[in-house]
Fold this protein.
Amino acid sequence: MPAQTVDLLKNELPLEQESVVLAEDVVNGLVLVDIINGFCSVGAGNLAPREPNRQITGMINESARLARLFCDKKLPVLAFLDSHQPNKPEEPYPPHCIAGTEESKLVPALQWIENEPNVTVRRKDCFDGYLGSVEADGSNVFVDWVKNNQIKTILVVGICTDICVLDFVCSTLSARNRGFLTPMENVIVYSRGCATFDVPLHVARNTKGALAHPQELMHHVGLYMAKERGAVIANEVSLATPKKP
């Protein structure tokens, strides 16, 4: 999609972003959405990028930076990993991120977090991590994570901005509004810590069943819709520096 067209659409859908400093006097939690090989590592699978992608690389770098900051401070981190059974397709997409394969593993830059005591890993088999956290007994791993850690604010990063990130954010905000996630109040989506995929129109026209998915535009739309639902959209995120005694 021509840059002029993207700029025109962005002008019609202006998105105000904020510089956010996470307060130190409340519990902040970090949610990593599907930052796995099958969506991020070149050539790793049906839904992986075919060549290096600047937006995805930037998302990985920012997510790894924040994960390190949260782990250094022993703050709660939850990582969703897309993980499907071979006999349960996720329409309309081709088979991807099959459980137990390299596709369903964290990208190399984040694999270290699985050994951190403050990190919870949740493998899910649907777009929406909130629904993907439901257990057979009706409990919810994500809800329990929020409540057990008394999380006030969650910071969300990952891929894809307009699909799994957006679905999770929308469900989480609805649950918050219904009072299911007390004491959680705030959902922040970090734009530079999110990314989506790119399918140009000319590629979609020559691929059976494919839909055009211009990366920069759909990233913007995903963030815009998250803000419409009540999320804070941040273009800068940092943790507050502890006050000197």
Observations:
- The helical segments are 3-12, 37-40, 54-72, 141-149, 161-177, 201-205, 215-229.
- The radius of gyration is 18 Å.
- The chain is about 30% helix and 20% strand.
